[in-house]
Amino acid sequence: MKKALIVRHVPREGAAGYLQPIEAAGFEIERIDVASPDFLDADLSTPDLLIMMGGPMGVYEQHIHPWIPHQIEKLAARLEQDLPTLGVCLGSQMIAAALGARVYPGGHMELGFAPVTLNGTGVDSPLRHLRDVPVLHWHSDTFDLPAGVDLLASTENYAHQAFRRGRNLLALQFHAEMGEDPRFEDWLTHFWADLDMAKQCDIALRQDHADHGPGAVAAGRAMIGEWLAGLES
């Protein structure tokens, strides 16, 4: 059976709604946390599919998190081989860094449910399933667009919301996997300072989660399912 490895930067940010299409595509899922003693020795080029999820840290905080440069180095080696790789939020920023792009604070906390705007390339990509669908945004960092990739989606505050390279690399700044996972409540309580910065109300976010979450997850699963079906071996 094909192997998929999920890299978790914090336990509260897992693959959530994306698990279903990954398993449906025939992958046996394994997980590793960056806090694990085994992480520094992990070979990120071995899995058939690598999925890197989100986290509150910044790619540029290598002085605080010494595992970051190790992950970027191993990720760069994987990307040189064009092996199937998916990055979400921090994971997308890691991909950008591994491709030589700058990752930096964006100056604006983007938090809440809102649709992304698909550009010409995105309309014909698996992101077409997200058209007019509010998805969860929760970040304040951004990145320069790496060379040789196609920009798929943007928002008003952040132009670089998603990109791909060929069929095997997909980077998503937003969280279309979140909408039915009970860990959303943990995000609200643990990342309360983000809500203050974004001037967001936790009660309103809970209501948006209830209203938009199932649709976001359904669209996100369709997106990932189509992307996985198009992978090149």
From TrEMBL:
CDD domains: GATase1_1. Keywords: Glutamine amidotransferase, Transferase. SUPFAM superfamilies: Class I glutamine amidotransferase-like (SSF52317). GO terms for cellular component: cytosol. InterPro entries: ChyE-like (IPR044992), Class_I_gatase-like (IPR029062), GATASE (IPR017926). It comes from Sphingobium chungbukense. Residues 28-191 form the Glutamine amidotransferase domain. This is Glutamine amidotransferase.
